[in-house]
């Protein structure tokens, strides 16, 4: 029954009917490699774990609502004023807040498609209209088409760099040209969840782009390179009106003390964490080379995953991987496979090789 027309229960917003119900994936068995959520395969660094365990000792108390220490460490690390930082329950929580502070019914939210699946959901939850703009055939953002999609009702544009799930990146000149063409009253969110995995020198750091552009917001997470996915902490960097608005709508006490302290400890242990990122990038290089040697045409991923354009054979491929003990993520257009432990990556490569021969 449509949620807005329920005869017996409370009236729910009809707009929710457009949002797919979350179906949890089958949990990876203990002996399966989970390459489906772009997580960091390394266990927490001992020092970070120790900090989190210590913080757990006070979970009878609310955390610091102002997220003071983490905010000041971030401000120093990235050379931005503390007032320009807003933290949240994962960057997806902040993405939701970004829509809430800019768009409502009748307003439009533009994003490339396929891209991060949360964009249409957070737009719809706010009552706004999601406007997906197809990627180019090679998986690049079609920035000209995204510009052309802007109307007087557009309030927010998400740009995912590198793009999840294809891994393609947008280069500096192209992104700057785009940002300068977007009307000043439209917020552009540059989602850089995977920035630490980029090795292409032509890709800009969004923080350099936001500084003299009041309508640009950079979105970052501790879930990927920093390995804190389960603690739910991310942050946005934006000029003060946007950052202050984000702080207004944030779930009170949404970032736990564990998350705050572990994020601070991770920034202090950044060198060790970035060594792990380097190892994952080396694994990505091995996986990409292996797939290309098998004959796959794949995007030049700059993130911690690779993408196979498998179309209607995606489910079949994912099933073959699961059979071999590797959980990957099928979409209607293709399959995304996270870079994980070397053994898991090798099993995936073996499945890809056999599958390729069957095409
Ligand atoms: N942005 C992108 C592009 C992502 O792929 C993800 C996670 N899959 C997120 C944001 C959200 O990450 P989190 O909420 O864990 O910070």
Helix content: 25-40%
Q: Could you tell me the mean pLDDT?
A: 96
Number of helices: 12
What do we call the CATH homologous superfamily of the largest domain?
Answer: Type I PLP-dependent aspartate aminotransferase-like (Major domain)
| Name given to the CATH architecture of the largest domain | 3-Layer(aba) Sandwich
Category by helix and strand content: alpha/beta
- State the name of the first-level CATH class of the largest domain: Alpha Beta
Determine the oligomeric state from the structure. Answer: single chain
Number of domains: 2
Q: What integer value in Å does the Rg equal?
A: 21 Å
Describe it for me?
This protein is α/β, with parallel strands linked by helices and 359 residues long. It folds into 2 domains: 108 residues, Alpha-Beta Complex (Aspartate Aminotransferase, domain 1); 220 residues, Type I PLP-dependent aspartate aminotransferase-like (Major domain) (Aspartate Aminotransferase, domain 2). 38% of the residues lie in helices and 14% in strands. It is built from 12 helices and 12 strands. The strands form 3 sheets. Strands 2-8-7-6-5-3-4 form a 7-stranded mixed beta sheet, with helices on both faces. It is globular, with a radius of gyration of 21 Å. The chain binds 4'-deoxy-4'-aminopyridoxal-5'-phosphate (PMP).
């Amino acid at each position: 029954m449509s949620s807005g027309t329920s005869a017996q229960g409370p009236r729910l917003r009809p707009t929710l009917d457009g949002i797919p119900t979350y179906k949890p994936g089958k949990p990876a068995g203990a002996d399966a490699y989970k390459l489906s959520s772009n997580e960091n395969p390394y266990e927490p660094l001992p020092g970070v774990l120790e900090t989190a365990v210590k913080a757990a000792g006070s979970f009878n108390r609310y955390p610091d609502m102002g997220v003071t220490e983490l905010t000041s460490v971030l401000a120093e690390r990235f050379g931005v004023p503390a007032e320009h930082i807003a933290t949240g329950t994962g960057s997806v929580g902040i993405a939701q807040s970004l829509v809430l502070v800019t768009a409502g019914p009748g307003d439009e939210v533009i994003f490339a498609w396929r891209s991060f699946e949360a964009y249409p959901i957070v737009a719809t939850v706010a009552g706004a209209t999601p406007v997906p703009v197809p990627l180019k055939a090679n998986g690049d953002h079609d920035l000209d088409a995204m510009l052309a999609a802007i109307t007087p009702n557009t309030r927010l544009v998400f740009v995912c760099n590198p793009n999840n799930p294809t891994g393609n990146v947008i280069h500096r000149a192209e992104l700057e040209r785009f940002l300068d063409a977007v009307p000043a009253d439209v917020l552009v969110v540059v989602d850089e969840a995977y920035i630490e995995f980029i090795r292409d020198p032509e890709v800009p750091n969004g923080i350099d782009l936001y500084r003299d552009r009041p309508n640009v917001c950079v979105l970052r997470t501790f879930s990927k390179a920093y390995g804190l996915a389960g603690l739910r902490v991310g942050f946005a960097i934006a000029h003060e009106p946007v950052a202050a608005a984000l702080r207004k709508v944030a779930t009170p006490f949404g970032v736990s003390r564990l998350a705050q302290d572990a994020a601070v400890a991770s920034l202090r242990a950044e060198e060790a964490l970035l060594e792990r990122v380097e190892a994952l990038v080396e694994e990505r290089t091995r996986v990409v080379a292996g797939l290309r040697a098998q004959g796959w045409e794949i995007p030049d991923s700059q993130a911690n995953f690779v993408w196979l354009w498998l179309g209607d054979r995606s489910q079949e491929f994912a099933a073959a991987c699961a059979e071999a003990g590797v959980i990957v993520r099928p979409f209607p257009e293709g399959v995304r496979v996270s870079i994980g432990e070397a053994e898991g990556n090798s099993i995936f490569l073996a499945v890809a090789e056999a599958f390729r021969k069957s095409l």
